[in-house]
Amino acid sequence: MHHTRASFVLGHHNELAKVIHCQVGEPTLLVTDLSPFHPQSHLWPDQPGDMGRVCWEGGEAKVAPCRMGAISPAGELFVDLDIPVKRGEPGWAFVVVHPLSGRYDLAVGTEISLQVDSERRLALSLGHSGCHLAALALNRTLVPYWRKEVSERDTLDQPDFDRLAIQTSRVEPMGSQEQYRIGKSLRKKGVNGEALLAALEQIESKVNDQLAKWLAAGGAIRRSRAGEAIIDSRYWHCALEGQEVTIPCGGTHVTGLAELGQVRVQLAPCEEGFTLITRVTP
């Protein structure tokens, strides 16, 4: 058995595929050889899984948010946090799991039409692209709050506060929410936490100014992948300030900054750090 071939990276919303595994239950868990559905990652569950429907001769079913799964050499399916092995474990197939509402016993080899909910996909893609842009703007705005030179740099060669401090991230329709922690290790690296947290209002304003400049300039967004398997690395690329910036990312995105319209953030203090809320208004 092979890993699911994933086509959402190419912007696909529809595919014809074949059933390779069907676990009947409530819900029925369907796995196909090819899928345009983006599954929520079990390792970094920032973007919710795609929804939609599947059709076959004589029937159809709604698809609840998709999850990652792994099928053992013995043919047992494990879903989401129950996956007991690392990606690429020999003999294991990593797959997109489509939870179907209802009980369906679909034979291996059955031809299936998969159709993603395009409106929901677009709303999440807007939120995810806005999230990356906001992270880069935050990194730039926080440069003055580093007392030391830091080796961890982002794609614009800025101190990568986002990667070093992020605790949780949740992509939402037309937005996202990230929580950052300024703990002892980050302070040792050189972050002036006290000054940063005391200036959240000014930082918020500067991040929004930077976002407005980038959006006014425009730029294309594209996706790339190391291979077609669901576990192959995927990347977000964006034309910004005369160069193409690149961020490893497994989610879905729009095709240009113009689609984002307006992106604005709000910063609010929380325990040992702050929360950044990003909102996209196409």
Strand residue percentage: 35-45%
Specify the CATH class of the largest domain. Alpha Beta
Number of strands: 17
Overall 3D form: elongated
User: Number of helix segments?
Assistant: 5
Would you give the CATH topology of the largest domain? Threonyl-tRNA Synthetase, Chain A, domain 2
Structural class: alpha+beta
Quickly list its features.
17 strands, 2 domains, 8-stranded antiparallel beta sheet, alpha+beta, Threonyl-tRNA Synthetase, Chain A, domain 2, 5 helices, 4-stranded antiparallel beta sheet, 282 residues, single chain, Elongation Factor Tu (Ef-tu), domain 3
Topology:
Layout: E1 5-6, E2 14-23, E3 28-32, E4 34-35, E5 52-56, E6 59-63, E7 67-71, E8 77-79, E9 93-100, E10 111-116, H1 118-141, H2 161-165, E11 166-172, E12 175-181, H3 184-189, H4 193-198, H5 200-217, E13 221-225, E14 234-240, E15 243-248, E16 262-270, E17 273-281
Parallel strand pairs: 1-4
Antiparallel strand pairs: 2-3, 2-10, 3-9, 5-6, 5-10, 7-8, 7-9, 11-12, 12-17, 13-14, 14-15, 16-17
Helix pairs in contact: 1-5
Task: Write up what this structure looks like.
- With 282 residues, this protein is of the alpha+beta class.
- It folds into two domains: 5-116, Elongation Factor Tu (Ef-tu), domain 3, CATH 2.40.30; 120-281, 2-Layer Sandwich (Threonyl-tRNA Synthetase, Chain A, domain 2), CATH 3.30.980.
- It contains five helices and 17 strands.
- The chain has helices at 118-141, 161-165, 184-189, 193-198, 200-217, and strands spanning 5-6, 14-23, 28-32, 34-35, 52-56, 59-63, 67-71, 77-79, 93-100, 111-116, 166-172, 175-181, 221-225, 234-240, 243-248, 262-270, 273-281.
- Strands 6-5-10-2-3-9-7-8 form an eight-stranded antiparallel beta sheet, with no helix packed on it.
- Strand 7 (67-71) and strand 8 (77-79) form a beta hairpin.
- Helix 1 crosses helix 5.
- It is elongated, with a radius of gyration of 20 Å.
